[in-house]
Write a structure and sequence with these properties.
The structure holds two protein chains of two kinds.
Chain A: E1 20-21, E2 24-28, H1 34-48, H2 51-65, E3 71-73, H3 75-84, E4 92-96, H4 107-120, E5 125-130, H5 134-146, E6 149-155, H6 156-161, H7 163-171, E7 175-179, H8 186-199, E8 204-206, H9 217-225, H10 227-240, E9 246-250, H11 255-261, E10 271-279, H12 289-292, E11 294-298, E12 300-305, H13 330-338, E13 342-347, H14 348-362, H15 368-380, E14 389-393, H16 402-408
Parallel strand pairs in A: 4-14, 5-6, 5-8, 6-7, 9-10, 9-14, 10-13
Antiparallel strand pairs in A: 1-2, 2-12, 3-4, 11-12
Helix pairs in contact in A: 2-4, 3-14, 4-5, 4-9, 5-7, 9-11, 10-11, 14-15
Chain B: H1 3-13, E1 18-24, H2 33-43, E2 47-51, H3 62-73, H4 78-91, E3 97-101, H5 103-107, H6 111-120, E4 125-128, H7 139-145, E5 149-150, E6 152-154, H8 163-167, E7 174-177, H9 190-203, E8 208-211, H10 217-224, E9 229-232, H11 234-243, H12 248-270
Parallel strand pairs in B: 1-2, 1-9, 2-3, 3-4, 4-5, 6-7, 7-8, 8-9
Classes of the chains: A alpha/beta, B alpha/beta.
Chain lengths: 413, 271
């Protein structure tokens, strides 16, 4: 961090006109794609200014996604942590229940918004990349809802590991295209989605699943996911009559986290922690781009990346397929550098522990991604005073992860 | 005149398009690359494009992607690529050498470091696939300061409104990407190439080279009738893929056929 960075009056006014969040973001794409993303930017700006777009989005979020979802006080989790804390310590923990959305995660918020943009641009075909399949399922879902032809690019290894989600996507009418290039995981599925897009720019819309990629994607994905933070704000004011002291959310690309954080960035009393996947630990295989990476350029934006000294991208690892990506959204890189958000690494085994503790204490099986955030809360809450309030973004439900977790615990199913 | 302008002028004087051939540096390994580069020159290539391998070559089709992975898999490092270039320059003082690749490996140590290395290795131009004019504040100025040409790409989606931004700061030659797509897959219709080249030549005095999807001597000759240069990449890379470290004679034979078609076409036009 340097003290020479001049901060704008509002931390919510990024990116600039060229899609830069400080030194990050931008539009690093092949010339073939430039005219299309400039067009997307124009269409998105027009949509933002159009109350009808907002109204249609809000109606779909209410009647189709099931929003607003609850802000839930996790009493048993709070008490269990207080029991281990010093007297008077142990913050109150609330959960923002994104896992109760249709399709079981926050991903659908963004997919609805982008499908509405695709329709405005007259595109009849959509494509998406997916790792574990959650964004693929959400994209296939909105494609069915809007009657769009849908192709999902998924690493061949992930197709093998995530058979239930592959079948779900097919049931929803999508074509799943296994990607055999590179390491056959999320990063490679994004490469192949970009290759397909550049070859089909005239009729295809790319629904990017996280707040990354070339401008305007990081901005528009953040805006579509900001419904999480806006609801949290209103619900917390209603429940406690004040803002929370701390927000905690898991960060892969970082769309659920930026969606929760962004509406609070200008409230200095609200601290924020983004939780990166530390895999086997920062000295071993991991997916913590901020803790273990450096600034670089991949998939259309400048951001923190896992890379070697020659700028070759190194493979990420996390037990959570949704965090298994060697980069992070550019706005997180900026928030990290200016110090507004703290980023904390959580390892596979810590997430596995919290996956089980939340299931037993609250009757909620979290996604492995969300279990990383729960683990961070379990570490942070006991040191805070008991009158402090933490909100954890429970970004998805864990049904998809039961096979992975059983395997990690050595359980035969 | 610099090497690139001299070479384009010499080809023009012969009434033919320049043959620009692409291979990936370090494919299949660093030790094999010099012989393959020499084979390109011996076969009659006018300008060499040397691919700088990257783990995530998003603009490339399967042929060049595999070449990238073969190269990195055999341990190619950035310093090896500059050594290959410097040795090539020593053996072939007059053949222009263009480095083509992606932003991250080029910029990881800073744009000035990269531009200085290019200059020291005798590299004449650089094509950075994922830096459009909008993001060219770093690499373009650094290359120009080091007297290395930043070569720009124009594509079927570069409309009249965008073209001036692409041309501003372009130098060496203009690379027309014939298809909206990745390297080595589809091929463009000859008529669409002719229209595009005419449009570009009306807008710039730079030589215009055409690439993406050019695989045969016949295609090269047809494009050579209208363009100043023809780029062939994936078809050569496929030969390296099939023959590995024994690829040089096969590469030379294929390049000679490409060059023969361009020369023959020029003679026909003259007659």
């Amino acid at each position: 961090m340097t003290d020479t960075i001049a901060l704008p009056n509002s931390l919510r006014s990024q990116p600039d006109a060229n899609g830069h969040f400080g030194a990050f973001g931008g539009r690093y794409v092949a010339e073939t794609l430039m005219p299309l993303i400039l067009e997307l930017e124009k269409v998105y700006n027009a949509a933002k200014a159009d109350p009808a777009f907002d109204a249609e989005m809000a109606e779909l979020l209410r009647t189709y996604v099931g929003r607003p979802n609850p802000l839930y006080y996790a009493g048993r989790l709070t008490e269990a942590l207080r029991a281990k804390a010093e007297p008077g310590k142990g913050a109150k923990i609330y959960l923002k229940r994104e896992e109760l959305n249709h399709t079981g995660a926050h991903k659908i918020n963004n997919c609805i918004g982008q499908a509405l943009l695709a329709r405005r641009m007259g595109k009849k075909k959509v494509i998406a990349e997916t790792g574990a399949g959650q964004h693929g399922v959400a994209t296939a879902t909105v494609a069915a809802l809007f009657g769009l032809e849908c192709k999902i690019f998924m690493g061949a290894k992930d197709v093998e590991r995530q058979k239930p989600n592959v079948f779900r996507m097919k049931l929803l009418g999508a074509e799943v295209i296994p990607v055999h290039s590179g390491s056959s995981t999320l990063k490679d599925s994004m490469n192949d989605a970009l290759r397909h897009w550049v070859s089909n720019v005239h009729d295809t819309f790319y629904i990017i699943g996280t707040a990354a990629g070339p401008h305007p994607y990081p901005e528009l994905v953040r805006d579509f996911q900001s419904v999480i933070g806006k609801e949290t704000r209103a619900q917390m004011l209603e429940a406690e009559g004040r803002l929370p002291d701390m927000l905690i959310a898991p960060v892969g690309g970082g769309s659920n986290a930026i969606g929760m954080f962004h509406p609070f960035l200008d409230d200095p009393e609200v601290a924020m922690i983004g939780v990166e996947a530390a895999g086997e630990g920062l000295t071993g295989k991991h997916a913590a781009s901020l803790a273990g990476g450096a600034s670089g350029i991949l998939h259309g934006n400048r951001t923190y990346l896992l890379q070697d000294e020659d700028g070759q991208i190194t493979e990420a690892h996390s037990i959570s397929a949704g965090l298994d990506y060697p980069g992070i959204g550019p706005e997180h890189s900026w928030l990290h550098e200016i110090g507004r958000v703290k980023y904390m690494p959580i390892k596979d085994d810590e997430a596995l522990e919290s996956f089980q503790s939340l299931s037993r204490l609250e009757g909620i099986i979290p996604a492995l991604e969300s279990a990383h955030a729960i683990a961070a809360a379990e570490q942070v809450a006991p040191a805070l005073d008991a009158d402090k309030i933490i909100v954890v973004n429970l970004s998805g439900r864990g049904d998809k992860d039961i096979f992975t977790v059983a395997d990690a615990l050595g359980v035969e199913m | 005149m610099d090497r690139l302008s001299t070479r384009f002028a010499a080809c023009k004087a012969q009434g033919r398009a320049a043959l620009i051939t692409f291979v990936t540096a370090g494919d299949p390994d660093v030790a094999s690359t010099p012989a393959i580069l020499d084979a390109l020159v011996a076969g009659g290539a006018d300008i060499i494009e040397l691919g700088m391998p990257f783990t995530d070559p998003m603009a490339d089709g399967p042929a060049i992607e595999l070449a990238n992975l073969r190269s990195l898999g055999s341990g190619t490092k950035t310093k090896d690529i500059f050594a290959i270039a410097a040795d090539f320059r020593a053996r072939h003082p007059d053949t222009p050498l263009i480095l083509m690749g992606y932003a991250n490996p080029m910029l990881v140590r800073g744009a000035n470091w990269f531009a200085d290395q290019c200059k020291a290795a005798g590299i004449d131009g650089v094509i950075c696939v994922d830096v459009p004019p909008e993001e060219d504040a770093e690499i373009g100025p650094a290359l120009r300061a080091a007297s290395v040409h930043p070569v720009r790409l124009a594509t079927p989606t570069t409309d009249a409104q965008r073209l001036p931004a692409v041309l501003e700061g372009a130098s060496g030659f203009l690379y027309h990407v014939a298809v909206a797509g990745v390297t080595g897959k589809q091929q463009a219709a000859q008529s669409s190439i002719e229209i595009a080249v005419a449009r570009l030549k009306a807008a710039t005095d730079l030589p215009v080279a055409v690439g993406f999807g050019v695989r045969t001597p016949e295609q090269a000759a047809a494009i050579g009738r209208v363009a100043d240069g023809v780029v062939v990449g994936s078809a050569i890379v496929d030969i390296v893929g099939s023959h590995g470290d024994a690829a040089a004679p096969f590469v030379q034979e294929f390049v000679a056929a490409l060059r023969g078609a361009l020369t023959h076409q020029a003679q026909e036009t003259a007659a």
